[in-house]
Every structure is written in C-alpha cells, then in structure tokens.
Amino acid sequence: MLRQVEKPARYTGGEWQACDKREVFFRLPEKDRIRFAFCFPDLYEIGMSNLALQILYAALNKDEHTWCERFFEPASDMREQLTRENIALSSIESGTPLNAFDIVGMSISYELAYTTVLDMLHLGKIPLRSVDRGEQDPLVVAGGPVACNLEPMAPFFDLIMIGDGEELLSSVTALYRAKKQNHWTKRDFLLTACQLEGIYVPAFYDVTYHPDGTIDTIEPNVPQAPRVIQKSIINDLNRAEMPLTPIVPNLNVVHDRMVMEIFRGCARGCRFCQAGFIYRPMRERSLENLSEAARTLFQQTGCDELGLLSLSTTDYSLLSELLEKLIPCAEKYHVNLSLPSLRLDAFERDMAEQVATTRRAGLTFAPEAGTQRLRDVINKNIVEEDLLQATDVALRNGWERIKLYFMLGLPTETDDDVDGIGSMVNRLITCWRNIPDQLRTRRFFINVSTSIFIPKPFTPFQWAAQISPDVMRERQQRVAAALRPNRRVNYQWHQFESSVLEAVFSRGDRRLADVIEKAWMQGCVLDAWHEHFRWDIWEPLLSEIPGGIHFYTRERSLHEQFPWDHIQIGVHRAFLEHEWQRAMKGKTTPACFEQCSHCGARAFGGGVCFEPPRTSSQKDIWT
Ligand code: SF4
Questions:
Q1: How large is the average pLDDT for residues 264-275?
Q2: Who is most buried in 17, 244, 349, 378, counting CB within 10 A?
Q3: CA neighbours within 13 Å on the CB side: how many for 160?
Q4: Does CATH number 3.80.30.20 belong to domain 237-494+557-610?
C-alpha cells in the first residue's frame, strides 16, 4: 500500500527519538496501562511542526503506565486506500488501530480542522457522537486553543480540556487508570473527572435558547459538574515539560527546526488576538532553564535551526542575555537562531546584530493596520516610526526581505485605513532608498499579506461583527490596486470564504454540530487547505440554519449570553467589555509590564502580574 502513495514516510514512523515502548509496556498488567492516541487533525507535515504535540508526547511518555502514539489525517491517496481496503487508521509507532486505544486525544489548533476530527474518528472506526459510543469504545477527549469554545463540536467529545495541557493530561490518564482498576463505567469516570480543574464534560450541561436563537441558559444537569469550568494553568513554566528529545521527522515538515517555548501568554492585549487573552498571565522560563535546554537540543537533534517561540518573542525580559548565551553555542553546533514573533518597537540595532550573526533570512513584522487610528482601536501599541526604524535597522544589517501582516475588516475600519497599507509600504521603500548605496541591499523586497478579521471568544472584539463577503472582496481589491504598481512588493491574500466559516465556528454553539457532520458526510475534510475547501457544500448547509451565516457573524449585544460563558479563562467578561468600549473610543491600554489593567488573570497567582517592574537596562528593549 505504501508504494502507491505519495510520501510514504508520513505513515512509516521509525523517526529519530520517536517513542516505542513495546518491550516494556506490555509487561504491565492491562489494568495498569493506558494507551493514548494523540491525534492531530491535519497532515503529518503540519502536525509534526506543532510544538504542543512534542510537549504532550514527551510529557505522556514519561509515565511508565502510559504509551502515547501519534495519528495524523492521511492524505487523500492514503485515505482512499484505507477506505477501499476497509483498514482502520493506525498509529505511527506500532500500527495499532485507533479504536484499540483507551483514550483518543484530539489536539485542535484551528476551527477549520473540525471535519477532519470527524474523519479521523470515522477512519479509526469509532462512532462519531459521544452518545453512540459504548463502554468498549475509547474515551474521546479534546484540547488546544479552540477548546475555549468547542461548543460546535460538543456532541462529539466525552471530555474537553481547558488550559495548559501538560499536567491536566497526566491527571486524566491517572484517573482513567483508576477507572480500569476499579471497573468504573465511563459515566462514573466522567462524573469524577468533571470535578477536576480544567475539565469540561459537555454532556453534563444543558443549553436552552430564546426564540430569536440566542442562548438563554447553560446549566449543569448533574450535581457533580461545576457551574463554571475554571481553566487549568501551570504558574511556574520552568516546571512545564520541555521536549528535549523531540521526534526528528524523516521528511521535510512545515517548520523543520528545534523549538523552545521561552514564555507562555502575552502581556500586550491586542484586542483581536485570542491567544493574547486565553493564555494570560504571561509566564517566562528562566534564563538557566532555556540555556540548558538549548544545549541539550543542539546535541540531541542535529537540526540546523532553533526557534525561540512565544506570542511575542522580543517581550522576553532577558532576551539580550539569552541571545548572548545561546549564540556561541549555536555557532559551535552550526545552528541558526530564529525569532519568529518580533515586535516592531523592540527590533533594535543590538538585537539585529546579534541575530544577524546567525541568519539573515526574511524578517516578519505585523503592523496589522494601515493607520495609527486603527492601530489604536486594536491596541497594537506601535507607531509607524517603529516600523520605519526597524526596517532601517534590518536593511543596514543585511536583511533583504520583509514580510508585513495586516488584517482587513477590523472594527471601525474605513477606506482610509485600507489605503494606509499602501502608503505605509511606499514609505518603507523610500526608507530603503534613503540608505546610502554601499550600506543597503540591492535586492530589497516586501511581501504584504492580509487576512480577514475573525471575532474570537474571550477577546474584547468578541462582540464585533465580521464584515460581509462583498466588503471583504472590495477591500482586498483595494489593497491589490494600491500595491500593484510597485515591483518591489508582492501581495498575498487568502480566500475569504474560509474566514467566514471560521467566524461562524469560532463564536458558534452546539446547533452547528449537525451542520459539521452533514458537511463531512458530503465530503468536506481538511478545510484549511485551499485545494480541499468546499464552499459549494458549506454555503448551502450554513444557509439552512435559522438566521443563516449572519446569525453567527453579526455584532452581539452587550447583554447577550455567549456559548462559552460557563468557561472561566481567567480574564473577566467585564474587563473585555471595558476594553471593547475603549476600542470604540480609540483608547489604548498599556501592556501588563507597564501597568496592570486588572483583567482578572492575577487570580491564578503567578506570572507577570507578580513580577517586579523591569530594570532600566531591561527596559531598553521595549523603547
Ligand atoms: S492581572 Fe494585570 S498584569 Fe496580570 S495579566 Fe491581567 S492585566 Fe496583565
């Protein structure tokens, strides 16, 4: 079968540092061992680039009682063969069918993976809906960034994990072992599990609706289930698992590099950014923890690039010191350091010189909006001078390509804001021209990329509307027309239909589950892939919902109950509402390390909320 598919290495396993416990694991009594299927609902190349996979795989396999194996969605050629031969989707490590596992864990990073989740369950011969699964079927659980509102997928999961997954998953596997040892039913297990922090059992909550389709109540239907589910959090990130012996894939994956998470959460508060709020408070790893980890990674993997990951890497309080420690070691092992999430206002000469010693590839900045007015609305606390200065520094330090990200359709956006994108790009080109010939690159090139704004739960913009498809098209064309005359600029934009679907799901409720299942039955899968996306299937199905697409993309009233109101992510709804109102007035809010805005995340008892103010030398980085 492998001879007939493209890239058989997607399915063969045997990668360097993959975990094969066959020798020892099966010596344990059956009741003492948990087989955990880590499912990533996308292709191997995407899943193997995902840091959460490496973290949770390492954390689970540390436990001698648990063997975590990987599953990915097969590409269409392999999928056809599995279906034709009636072979169940099997694990990469041991070739065990999905339905033979105790726990199936879906790691969901984006809403457009929903139909792929169903496809993997189906290929693994597991009933899709929780109510249709019996005692012999695996427990199906989910986690990941979208878990904070997985209501559209609620009927398909037995249990959803909210918050940091490392320790939470260990609690779930330990409890499941107790279930096996004590012969509990699945329901007994779930009644106990739902009392753990961060565990949400959708079946234990009833949702009622007003006649206009908005939510009336969300109430627990068993006494054990809490009224509000509190997210799970690891306050001291140094305690969290760092995958020091990551699996090294045998084929090229999207991000072919080692990665270190230098901090979790974000202190900035960009009002459109869900990750910036749901992972609060910002928690850093120590300098010692990171430099030791880097040394081990250099020795263990043989990769030639180390990514320092976070939501905003230049906000790490000791970044200069960290680079000073890492660069000599990186040079010794011929490893390039990459800083994927740079803030414009923090990209300074010293840092450019430090990073430039290891790599001069393209630099990516995200101004997000074309005018200062709109950047204030979204709380992107940068000014155009930051971008001009960062570009000047980059060009004088050998960079040739700059990538700029913008978002179209942000709340209050006007034509002037859209035109501001073209004006900003023109000023960057002028900046390049103003650098003396001998100091600048001749091959300067700017990639401009726009995406469509999607209102997300747990952000100040959770009340905002998404612009209509007609306006999306018009604004994309406006940017394209402004940038077209310039041969140093390339403009990329995404198909807007998938942004509409993402917007429907991101603020969706349980009634969408039927639509998702119908779409999957009609052939929708891998919806995040342009070549697989079937708007011709989705659009008529979504139009059948009372209120249609507009019901989910409309502006929400301040009093409307959200499908996710029973989840406590740490940031209070009142704070988000206050931020929404400040946005409408164009008022900005400072970052946590400048001034606390009392969002509510302080209640977790850790992170930036409790750190002493930064010293003046550290502050240099943020000026
Ligand atoms: S409580 Fe204050 S410091 Fe802590 S995350 Fe919220 S705004 Fe930031």
A1: 96
A2: 378
A3: 28
A4: yes
